[in-house]
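W.,

You were right to be curious about this one. When I first looked at the sequence I had no strong expectations either way, so I just let the prediction run and decided to look at it fresh. Below is the sequence, 372 residues in total, followed by the output.
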Amino acid sequence: MTDHKTPRRRSLLKGAALAAGAMSAPMLATAQTTTTLRFQSTWPAKDIFHEYANDFANKVNSMASGKLKIEVLPSGAVVPAFQLLEAVNKGTLDGGHGVVAYHYGKNTALALWGSGPAFGMDPNMVLAWHNYGGGKALLDEIYKSLNMDVVSYLYGPMPTQPFGWFKKPISNVAQLKGVKFRTVGLAVDMYTDMGAAVNPLPGGEIIPALDRGLLDAAEFNNATSDRILGFPDVVKNCMLQSFHQSGEQFEILFNKGKFNALPAELKSIIDYSVQAASADMSWKAIDRNSKDYIDLKKQGIKFYKTPDAILKAQLVSWDKIIEKKGGENPLFKKILDSQKAYAERAGQWQNDYMVDFKMAYNHYFAKGAKKA
């Protein structure tokens, strides 16, 4: 007897198979491999700088949708802070977060991305020079000369750093003579030339050294970091405004082999995460630094403007340093010439176009200002 339902059964079975295939397709599409990169910052876990490193990683992780994950460890978790570059180069770490000036012992020219007055450029202008004025190619040239196989991104224009925290505030250059002081980069040379006895300690070692009397004074970076590190617990005077590190920024490093192995999509996500993190960091810095500055004042910390005589002395010292280093290191001079040409053009534009914001601030907030 012929089964008249057979063709219909076959059709149903075929349809069921197609439906099952359609249902399984999305499930197969979601099966993907996650590339995990282990990073280390050069900052203690409690520092806002380590928070910035995590902010960058979180942006990458979010946009990568599970295809790439960056995990950030604090300073010292794998290597000491000042050994980050070598660790990333060797592949001990897949990447890291720090500042270029920390590597200046390998080539003094590296300090020019952080130390000194940068011919009058502010931090954002230094980043403009780096990204559009030839600085990135010059940094790559230095790393290549050092056989450092890394991919470097600079981002995050830092606010001008204080002259320093002093157990006794100083009013002239002569009072710096013999002061045991902490700084890094070519600021070491600047403060040494001005008479201080300098020790370039990592950030996490500053407060214990101050507390034990191994240092008389020190600088780190900003109101938030300085408060978190514990400066107010051991020093009560902070002098604001300085040219020793007035245009610094952060550096994100990748091991070149690990970076090159990533697909183009993930490289683009990293590129745009750097840009997004740079803007976000600068906004967060304004918000957090201003709050902590007020809180430090409430705690009884005394803030002083660095006298103009000291600021001018810094510029004189810097001139001597760059003349000497430029004569010793062709790359140093090459970078200086590039910065100077860019600063002359961009600085003229900025100085001519930008209004004096202090005038408006004083109109509304200075004592005796007319109320609206």
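Here's what jumped out at me. Residues 1-10, 16-29 have pLDDT under 50 and may be disordered. And, maybe more interesting for your project: The CA atoms of residues 46 and 253 lie 21 Å apart.

Coffee later to discuss?

I.
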